[in-house]
Write a structure and sequence with these properties.
The protein is α+β, with helices and mostly antiparallel strands. It is elongated and about 75 Å long. Strands 1-2-3-4 form a four-stranded antiparallel sheet, with no helix packed on it. The protein has one helix and four strands, in the order E-E-E-E-H. A hairpin with a 5-residue loop joins strand 2 and strand 3.
């Protein structure tokens, strides 16, 4: 009969991010074998339960992961800036909206309004 030895990992640090309905956890850990790694976990509500997804990144792959993440965020910002520029261009090309007659005040012109009492001669 063989004996299975399990070694627990130790959490070195943890960061929590709440974004909308989702929760993200960034945990730095050290395995029982001395290997350092980090995990990114996501909790998403699904009805009355929560679903957890986790990605494990070993320390030796952290730099490549970081570079890929930074490049993706840069591309996302550029795409968002292009989208914003396109929206602004559409807004500039569309005719200015003027208030409709129904939205204007129905008060008579200023000269015909009476304030206080009128002198009758």
């Amino acid at each position: 009969m063989s004996t299975v030895t399990t070694t627990k990992s130790v959490k070195l640090s943890s960061q929590y991010v709440q974004a909308g309905k989702r929760s993200y956890f960034f945990d730095l850990k050290k395995s029982g074998f001395g290997e350092v790694y980090f995990t990114i976990s996501q909790l998403v509500p699904e009805g009355n339960t929560w679903t957890r997804s986790t990605v494990l990144i070993p320390a030796e792959h952290a730099r490549a992961f970081y570079d890929g993440l930074c490049a993706t965020i840069k591309e996302m910002r550029q795409a968002m800036a292009l989208e914003q520029a396109a929206l602004e261009e559409v807004e500039q090309r569309s005719p200015a909206k003027t208030p409709s007659r129904k939205a204007t005040s129905k008060q008579p012109p200023a000269q015909s309004r009476s304030v206080g009492t009128a002198n009758v001669a």
